[in-house]
Design a protein that fits this description.
It is built from 10 helices and no strands. With 275 residues, it is mainly α.
Length: 275
C-alpha cells in the first residue's frame, strides 16, 4: 500500500479511536452510578424538578427530560443546564455557584437520575405527600377564588420556586405588600401568562399551562392572604464564569488529544516526505 494511503488510513483510525474513548468512558461511568446516588437524585427531582418537568420527566411547564440525549457528553450538557440555567428561558440556575440552592454533589445526583430513564437504571421512588398544614383562611372581599383551595394548589405548584411561605427561593418573594390598586389583577396576569424572557412560565391553560382559570384565581386569593416576610439572603452568583469555556472539562481534553494526534501525524508525514 502506498505510504500516503497508509498514513491517511492510520490517521482516520486514530481519530476514530480518540472520538470513541469518551463514549466508552461515559458508558462505564453510567454503569458505576450507585443506588444511593440515584435515590438521592430521585428525591431531589421530586422536591425541585417534578412540578415543571413531570413525575416521569414527560414535561409539564418545562421541557421533556425522559428522552434519548444526543451528543458525546449528555451528562455534562445536562449538568451545565441545571447548574447555570438557560438565560432567557424558564429554566433557572440551580447550582449554589450561580445563585441557586443546590450544591454540586446534588446536581450530580440529579443528572444521574435523569439519565437513568435512558439507561434503564431506574430506582423505585414515590414522593410522599408534603402538603403544608395551614389553618382555615378567610377569603378577601372582592377577590375571586378560594384561598383554602389556593393554598393546596400553591403547595403543589409554587412552593419549589417561591418558598413555602412566599419568602422567595429561586423565584420572587410573594409574601409582601402589593403596591397596585388591584394587586389581584396583577398577580393573576403574571400567573396566567408568565413573564416572557424570565423563569416565570405561563400556568393558565389559555396560555399553554396546566391550570384552569378557577385554579389560578384560587392561587391569587391565597397569595394575597400571605403575611409579609423578608426575603432570605441569596448567594451571589459567579457571573464572571457564566459562559462555560470551550477548553473546560472533557471538551478541552478531547481537543488536546486531537491536536496532539495531528502534530504526530504531521511529523510522520514530514519524515516520509524526506525519505
Amino acid at each position: 500500500m502506498p505510504p500516503k494511503k497508509t498514513f491517511i488510513l492510520t490517521g482516520l483510525a486514530l481519530l476514530a479511536a480518540i472520538l470513541l474513548l469518551p463514549v466508552l468512558f461515559a458508558g462505564a461511568s453510567a454503569q458505576t452510578t450507585s443506588e444511593d446516588e440515584l435515590e438521592l437524585g430521585a428525591r431531589l427531582y421530586a422536591e425541585n424538578c417534578l412540578v415543571c418537568h413531570g413525575e416521569q420527566g414527560q414535561g409539564r411547564v418545562g421541557a421533556t427530560l425522559a428522552k434519548p440525549w444526543p451528543g458525546v457528553f449528555p451528562a455534562a450538557d445536562i449538568k451545565t443546564t441545571i447548574s447555570r440555567g438557560v438565560i432567557g428561558s424558564t429554566m433557572p440556575a440551580w447550582d449554589e455557584q450561580f445563585g441557586g440552592p443546590l450544591p454540586e454533589a446534588e446536581i450530580d445526583a440529579l443528572v444521574a437520575y435523569i439519565l437513568s430513564w435512558q439507561t434503564g437504571q431506574v430506582v423505585d421512588y414515590s414522593p410522599a405527600a408534603t402538603a403544608t398544614l395551614r389553618p382555615p383562611i378567610t377569603p378577601i372581599p372582592q377577590v375571586e377564588g378560594d384561598p383554602n383551595r389556593g393554598a393546596v394548589l400553591y403547595d403543589e405548584n409554587c412552593t419549589v420556586c417561591h418558598g413555602e411561605d412566599g419568602q422567595g427561593r429561586i423565584g420572587a418573594r410573594l409574601a409582601k405588600s402589593w403596591p397596585s390598586v388591584r394587586p389581584d389583577l396583577t398577580i393573576r396576569t403574571t400567573i396566567s401568562q408568565g413573564i416572557e424572557g424570565s423563569t416565570m412560565p405561563a400556568w393558565s391553560m389559555a396560555y399553554g399551562g396546566p391550570l384552569s382559570e378557577d385554579q389560578v384565581d384560587d392561587i391569587v386569593s391565597f397569595i394575597l392572604t400571605m403575611p409579609a416576610v423578608e426575603s432570605p439572603a441569596q448567594p451571589t452568583p459567579d457571573t464572571e464564569d457564566r459562559e462555560p469555556s470551550i477548553l473546560s472539562g472533557w471538551v478541552g481534553v478531547l481537543l488536546g488529544v486531537v491536536l496532539f494526534a495531528l502534530l504526530i501525524g504531521i511529523a510522520i508525514w514530514a519524515q516520509r516526505e524526506r525519505e
